[in-house]
Request: fold
Amino acid sequence: MTGSDDRDQLLRELAFWKQEYDALGARLLRAQDAQSRASREARRSRMVADLISEAHRISNLDLAAEAIGERMLAKIVESFCERGVLLKEDPNAPGAFVVEHAIGLPAGQRLTLPNPPAFLFTASDRPPEPPAAALTGLLGVPFVLWAYEGASGRALLLGNQTESNIRRPFEAGDQELIRSALTVYIDILLRILAEATLRQAKVAAEEANAVRARFLAILSHELRTPLNAIIGFSELLLQTGTRAPAPPQREEFARQILDAGRALLALVKDILDFSSFSNARPRLRRDWMPVGQILESMKRAFAAESALRGIDVTLEPPDPTLLISIDYDRFRQILANLIGNAIKFTAMGGRVDIAGREIPGQGVAITIRDNGIGMRPEDIPRALEPFVQLENMRRHSIPGTGLGLPIAKQLVEAHQGQLTIESTYGEGTCITILLPEAFTTHAAPARP
Amino acid sequence: MIRTAYASDIDVTAAVSACRDRLGLAAPDLLIAFVGGKHPRDAAQRAIADAFGPVPLVGGSAPGVISPQGFGYTGFEIGLVGFQGPDVTPVIVGTHDLNAGERAAGVGLGAAVRDNSMDGQVVMILFDSVAETAPLRLHPGSQLMEGFQEGLAGRIAHVIGCGLLTDINISDGWVLNRTAVSKHCALALVFPPGLRAETVILHGCRPVSSFMEITRIEGAEVFELNNQPALTVVEQMLGLELGTTSGQQLSLVATLGQKQGDPFAPYDENKYVNRLILQANPAHGSITLFEPDFAVGTRVQIMSRDNTLMLESVERGVAALRARIADANCLLGLYIDCAGRASVMSGAETEEAELVMSELAPSFPVMGLYSGVEIAPFAGDYSRPLDWTGVLTVLQRET
Reply:
């Protein structure tokens, strides 16, 4: 072999090894890239498992239902994409969605998608389907992945700006992932909502039990007081011989028994009324009545009691032509409760002002205003609940079952009216009955 | 005193609040904040200002944050470094002129550092990597650092730093610059003279081709390798269908590496400067690199990341660093980690950042971030931007 042959041989060998080196290098590069892609795909596949794990963790955190969406979405976006939103469909407007939770854009945005598809995606290598524009527009990125579950009205929309590096193009195979993610979210959401409902029901039941216990305590007291009077005075009446009551005492004892019996009857009537109104709205027999007439009649009915308690009850004379359509007995019951309460909760020397006015465009407002003990703001709604004896009442040793206002409210609502309370603690209370315009009118002027 | 804190929460206010509680410095003299890129930037800046009051704040976006207390790249992480006392608190100088020319901005920044330092001081540079998003254009760190070196005018500095990103997909990047959130901004944090730094560069790429010569290049766009269209060469290597490679499909898959010194010396990871491929340009048959610092005649090799090598490099590099530091003198560890080294990109079964933290096992505060480009002293030369590396620096008190 010559030196030239050796050199040619070496060059051939060099070319051979260079080619082999490059080929092996290329295989290594491809293998590395394939391994990276496979690893990323595996991470994506683990997303649902991670999501279930996160859902389990979240469900133990005692979070509100609203708080879980963002956390679940963060977990999805972390594994899968750059942006994401969870949407809720308006149950009254199919296809109208609102963004409940968002990462990468503000929440609260709206999306209208008639006939929302169960699954949709966009990618650079396929023409976009018609609804895609609304979805890419919402997220502000060209590549989106969408899943929708009609039964719950929930949807998940994910998006990417690019299809490179760690964000590969979306594909049909992603359907299982995104739908699973959405299902996990819905499941955990419904579970937490159900738990919240159960908790609320438990609280309501406990509250109802407490109310019932309070009612029984109040009721037994309210029943015992007149019954004790009836039994006690009856025993006194039955005494004979030297201990027999004198005729004036007999009369007084009989009056006490009568008063206690009437009080007992009123109490039983209240309870029966409230019970029946709770089951069904009372039937009304409406008649047109002048407002002034019924208010004047009620003022007269309370004249004795107000005089006894030293309370000045005034009536601002209403328009004599103003008529309201009411059930006379039931409306008197309302006014009796309200005026009675006003007198009861006003100290001696105080005043109760009654008025009935027409409010253009609204109807007729009847107000009973006192300058009594008043209520704290937090007590006002409670005063409308049955059997609630406010701390204020207890402190002032004012008897009562607490049924008067709830019954009045039920009856006002049966008249399709509204009962509102304004009160300032220590200054007084103003209760307004607003009867709608449809039940008010004016009588024709009297002919000369 | 230097303290660090890490937290991750989708609510930026909650994340900042957790960091504030963990930092244990009520009124630091300076805060560095690395903010996960999914957090809204203005909200993040406001949350930090609300939590700490009128404290000078620098830092910026990060695809993720790394600390011994935890790490992640969900985009919801926050990492804080709080400085208290003139003996540890860096002086801040900056430029907003990157968009007018990175080199000139670098010259100005280098001159400002020169005016505020003495030889041997440690400098950390932070800048937003993404200049424009459509089409994607980066602020080239190589031009910034060339200018910076010129501006230093012979001043010797230990310079580390990074280009900031919002996410691994290079969507954007921004800088926290005191009371503002800035773009096209570079900051230099000049640490006090009593501190010195030890730095190691962790690698993870190996050559997978023979040497090729760049035969045509304009800026960062390489048109030809060995007189063939550069894209064709890379596509053939990757086994892609020729002429179909689009957009960023090649991005972060392969790099071009330039071997320093004797080209036929045995493989040494420390001898390579790697440049990531930013995008492929099928219309030109070219590829665009992260940096425009190669030229016609530069001999390069196509490099592939190697996860095993990456993790071995971590073990070697951290061990070497530990041998050079004494924990008692260490004040702060800084880890600037190429976002591509995260497992979600590299496919490594072990998270490289986690390995760095466990190997370092620091008894001193450490804070790190995922970055777009890493800046570190290279091969005894001035600091250069590097790709696909991890730069681990420990600041120590001068003894």
